[in-house]
Write a structure and sequence with these properties.
- The protein folds into two domains: about 130 residues, Fructose-1,6-Bisphosphatase, subunit A, domain 1 (Fructose-1,6-Bisphosphatase, Chain A, domain 1, 2-Layer Sandwich); about 100 residues, D-Maltodextrin-Binding Protein, domain 2, CATH 3.40.190.
- About 25% of the residues lie in helices and about 25% in strands.
- The chain is built from six helices and 13 strands.
- The strands form two sheets. Strands 2-1-3-4-5-6-7-8 form an eight-stranded mixed beta sheet, with helices on both faces.
- Helix 1 runs antiparallel to helix 2 and helix 4 runs parallel beside helix 5.
C-alpha cells in the first residue's frame, strides 16, 4: 500500500494561520518567557503551531520546545516567531518560518511576514514563490553595488556598497531569493536551523547560491547546534565574500 503524501504547503499554511490567530489581540509583547532568550510571544506562537503539527503526526523541531518525534519520517523545523526581539519592540519586521525535511533533505518551506502577511514558499524541485508569483535573485555578481543583509555587527572590512541589519534571518534570506538584497551572511555563525531552513530552501529554489561560513552542512536536527548561513544572488558574488563570518573576520 502506498503511503499518502501530504500537501506540505497546505499544512504549513494552516500552521501559519494558527500563529497569526494566536497573536491577534496579543498585548504582552515585552513580557519574557521561561528562558532568558525567550519572550511570552514566542511561547504563545509555539503552542499554536504545535496545535496544528502534533495531530499531523510529523516530527517537530522547534526553537521554543525542542525536538518531538512523530509517526512519519518527515520533521517540520519551526521558528514560531523569527525576529521576536523586533516583535517585542513593535518593530514591524518578523515572521514565522517553517520547513519540512525528510531525514535531513528539505521538502517544502514557508515564511510568512507576521505584519504584512506576505508569504514566501518553495517545494523541492518546484521553484520559489512570493504570494504565488515565481521569484528569482538579482543576478548581482560584483560588490561595488551589492546590498548585503547581515546578522551581527559588520566591521569596516566587510565589502559591499551598503549593509542592512534587519533582525530576521528568514526574511533576509527571502529578500535574497526575490532580489531585494544581493546577499545575506551571518557574521557570528550563531543561528539555529529553525532561523534559516525555510529561507535557504526558498533561496535555492529561486536560483540563489547558498552555503555556510565554515563549509558545514546547514540541515540538522539537534537543538543546540548553530551555523552561519550565507546566501548570494550568484556564485561569483559568493566567492567575493569567502571568509567573512569566520573567526578572523568577526
Amino acid at each position: 500500500m502506498t503511503a499518502v503524501v501530504p500537501d506540505w504547503l497546505e499544512l504549513l499554511r494552516r500552521t501559519a494561520d494558527a500563529v497569526v490567530a494566536a497573536l491577534s489581540g496579543f498585548e504582552r509583547w515585552k513580557d519574557r518567557g521561561d528562558r532568558p532568550d525567550q519572550y511570552a510571544l514566542d511561547q504563545v506562537a509555539d503552542a499554536a503551531a504545535l496545535g496544528v503539527l502534533v495531530p499531523a503526526g510529523v516530527g517537530i523541531l522547534s526553537e521554543e520546545s525542542g525536538l518531538r518525534r512523530g509517526r512519519r519520517s518527515e520533521t517540520v523545523i519551526v521558528d514560531p516567531v523569527d525576529g521576536s526581539t523586533n516583535a517585542s519592540r513593535r518593530i514591524p519586521h518578523y515572521c514565522i518560518s517553517l520547513c519540512v525535511v525528510d531525514g535531513l533533505t528539505p521538502v517544502a518551506g514557508l515564511v510568512r511576514h507576521l505584519v504584512s502577511g506576505e508569504e514566501f514558499t518553495a517545494t523541492s524541485g518546484g521553484g520559489a514563490h512570493c504570494d504565488g508569483h515565481r521569484i528569482s535573485p538579482s543576478n548581482c555578481t560584483g560588490l561595488e553595488r551589492a546590498i548585503i543583509g547581515v546578522s551581527g555587527r559588520p566591521g569596516p572590512e566587510l565589502p559591499g556598497w551598503q549593509v542592512r541589519v534587519l533582525g530576521s534571518a528568514a526574511l533576509d534570506l527571502c529578500a535574497v531569493a526575490c532580489g531585494r538584497l544581493d546577499a545575506y551572511i551571518d557574521l557570528n555563525s550563531n543561528h539555529g536551523v529553525w532561523d534559516y531552513a525555510a529561507g535557504v530552501l526558498i533561496c535555492a529554489e529561486a536560483g540563489a547560491w547558498t552555503g555556510e561560513t565554515h563549509g558545514r552542512e546547514l540541515f540538522y536536527l539537534e537543538h543546540r547546534q548553530r551555523r552561519g548561513p550565507i546566501a548570494t544572488s550568484t556564485a561569483q558574488l559568493a566567492s567575493l565574500l569567502d571568509g567573512f563570518g569566520r573567526d578572523d573576520h568577526r
